[in-house]
Design a protein that fits this description.
Layout: H1 5-14, E1 21-24, H2 31-42, E2 45-50, H3 67-78, E3 87-92, H4 98-110, E4 115-120, H5 123-131, E5 148-151, H6 157-163, H7 167-179, H8 186-199, H9 203-210, H10 215-232, H11 239-256, H12 278-286, E6 290-296, E7 307-316, H13 319-326, H14 330-334, H15 341-358, E8 364-369, E9 372-379, E10 385-390, H16 399-408, E11 413-417, E12 422-424, E13 427-431
Parallel strand pairs: 1-4, 1-5, 2-3, 3-4, 6-8, 10-11, 11-13
Antiparallel strand pairs: 6-7, 8-9, 9-10, 12-13
């Protein structure tokens, strides 16, 4: 399956400022597959080492951190000739060997001709615990300034279209968005969007779907991944923290279906104490399993200085996983059943948040009063503020969006809904299936044509 991260990996490979690369992201988003596919396509050979599954590899890094000795030992261990520039060295789950992480500093400083990609699912969590003094040894340090860092997310809807033989659909959507013209295959694209909601962007689920798996098989994939995530929640934590992490994780679906989707820590479980849930919540964010959207008090730039940390919404890393945990049958999503109206706001917002994060947008939300809210707000590449209102249906009103526009005068606003493409009264209306077109350069896409 083709992934957008490949283009960024190729930029990294060809950059004159290339350093060893840390590829981060939640477990099961496809990091290892993408890196190995990239290595096979762009290098003579790939030397792959997994520290989590084979602890013997860690012994190579115990003696010293001389890059030449390490390369020779890795080459002998794997039986692969590791060649400067022509071999991609992949250090998978590097958080399981902190000395290997520290070695990246010396590879960058002494032997930058070696091409190294290190991946880690719980890297940030492991390092944070070490900073807190929970590590057994202190002969390592994070290679600050000596690594490039990329974050990988689940497949977005465009990648899903590529994987399912609908590339012409995704290309047509981009052309229509750029031209601000109605998309001819609107209903077809909406059907693909609804299918994506149920499958999600976790590669194993997408792969099963492309192989013809039925809904129950896809649900089983989601259940297995959920079990894997729950198992990870005991890593680098105390027993009490693990219990709290799982409680927060399980609380997200029911808190998202509330009319007011603000996440309330005291509602996580009976007797929950807010002050005791900060660390567990941070664990989920650092592991990449949740996306947090904070409330801002004003729509003036820079948005980041106007956050109100106590008010935020939590979204799951993947919409397919959310719908699975909600227990919504895929047939009801695909038929756009009206009986799901109370849930549509939750999974639609979760989908949009997931798409924005895949485009490296970290949005906020604006809610000056309980009955007024703009779902997402972000800054574009020119410093302009872009408000995004999310609606799950075709029949829409934009009272909150209009209030924000009247107060802060953005160049234009965005409304994502089931309606076709249009631009009127300063609102760029895009279909939900086209949200993957939203990025920090959106100012260059619709312009301000009225």
């Amino acid at each position: 399956m083709e992934r957008k991260i490949t283009a960024r990996l190729l930029e990294w490979k060809n950059s004159p400022y290339r350093k060893p690369l840390l590829l981060c992201g939640a477990r099961q988003v496809g990091k290892t597959y993408a890196v190995l596919q990239f290595g096979g396509a762009h290098y003579k050979n790939t030397a792959y080492f997994n520290f989590e599954f084979n602890r013997q590899i860690s012994e190579i890094f115990e003696k010293d951190l001389d890059p030449v000795r390490i390369v020779n030992s890795l080459s002998a261990y794997s039986g692969i000739d590791i060649l400067e520039k022509d071999t991609l060295i992949v250090l998978d789950e590097i958080q399981s060997c902190k000395r290997a992480l520290t070695s990246l500093k010396y590879f960058n400083e002494k032997n930058p001709e070696y091409h190294i990609i290190a991946t880690g699912s719980l890297l940030g969590i492991a390092l944070k615990k070490d900073d807190e003094g929970d590590c057994e040894r202190n002969d390592f340090s994070f290679p600050v300034g000596n690594v490039n860092i990329l974050r990988m997310h689940p497949m977005d809807l465009e990648e899903f279209m590529w994987a399912t033989g609908n590339r012409k659909i995704s290309d047509g959507i981009r052309k229509a968005i750029s031209a601000q013209e109605r998309y001819d295959l609107h209903e077809k694209a909406m059907d693909i969007y609804r299918m994506y909601l149920t499958i999600g962007g976790l590669p194993e689920a997408v792969k099963r779907y492309t192989e013809g798996a039925d809904a129950s098989s896809i649900a089983a994939v989601h259940a297995d991944i959920d079990v894997t995530y729950m198992g990870d929640m005991s890593k680098y934590t105390t027993k009490a923290e693990a219990v709290a992490i799982r409680a927060i994780w399980s609380s997200i679906p029911r808190q998202l279906i509330k009319e007011n989707k603000r996440f309330v820590l005291r509602d996580v479980s009976e007797g929950a104490r807010t002050r005791e849930l900060g660390t567990p919540l941070d664990w989920l964010r650092t592991a990449g399993l949740v996306n947090r959207c904070e409330r801002i008090s004003t729509g003036e730039i820079p948005l980041s200085v106007h956050t109100e940390g106590s008010d935020f919404k939590l979204y799951m890393v993947d919409t397919g996983l959310l719908i699975s945990k909600l227990g919504i049958p895929s047939k009801m999503i695909l038929s756009d059943s009206s009986s799901l109206d109370m849930y549509k706001g939750a999974h639609t917002e979760n989908y949009v948040m997931q798409a924005l994060r895949a485009n490296e947008i970290d949005p906020y939300y604006w809610s000056p009063t309980p009955n007024k809210e703009v779902d997402f707000i972000f800054q574009d590449s020119e410093g302009g503020v872009v408000p995004v209102e999310v609606k799950s249906a075709k029949h829409v009103t934009s009272i909150s969006l209009s209030a924000f526009a009247d107060k802060y005068r953005p160049h234009y606003s965005v409304r994502a809904s089931a309606k076709n493409i249009g631009f009127e009264n300063g609102i760029f209306s895009i279909p939900l299936y086209a949200v993957f077109c939203l990025n920090k350069d959106i100012c260059d896409v619709p312009g301000n044509r009225t």
